[in-house]
């Protein structure tokens, strides 16, 4: 008969949930494939509002958010996530075509932990996710005034109140 220590050693590890919010289908599909192959439970969305709704529904450990999204940009998505105490443990990674220092500072001020410029090195992205998850960072909640002015199936539908 196995004792409790043995049971813990063989208990399956739950894959961290990741939400990808990216409006370019090819990039979204490539990121989803990479992360699913690495063992993550991946959900996708293609606009800011659907991304925010997906993050609220799925409550992922990590959300990878493009900055230049239709309808609601990535900064606004990050600020809404940071204003929601239920999402305080969600780690945010910004993906953007703008890699300047001003862009990095804007991402951090909005609540992102990491800023990555496109084209992103896929190996670096996967390592970054592993390191963030392993670091077990403290929860982050910001007031809405802070910062500058597919589980294999995509998330869909309008967001709850922004």
UniProtKB/TrEMBL annotation:
Ranges for domain Response regulatory come to 17-133
Gene3D superfamilies attached to this UniProt entry: 3.40.50.2300
The UniProt keywords, alphabetically, are: Phosphoprotein
Q: What SUPFAM superfamilies does the annotation carry?
A: CheY-like (SSF52172)
Q: 4-aspartylphosphate occurs at which residues?
A: 66
Stored CDD domains = REC_2_DhkD-like
Alphabetical GO biological process terms: phosphorelay signal transduction system
Keyword Phosphoprotein listed:
yes
| Keyword presence, Ligase | no
Name of this chain's protein = Response regulator
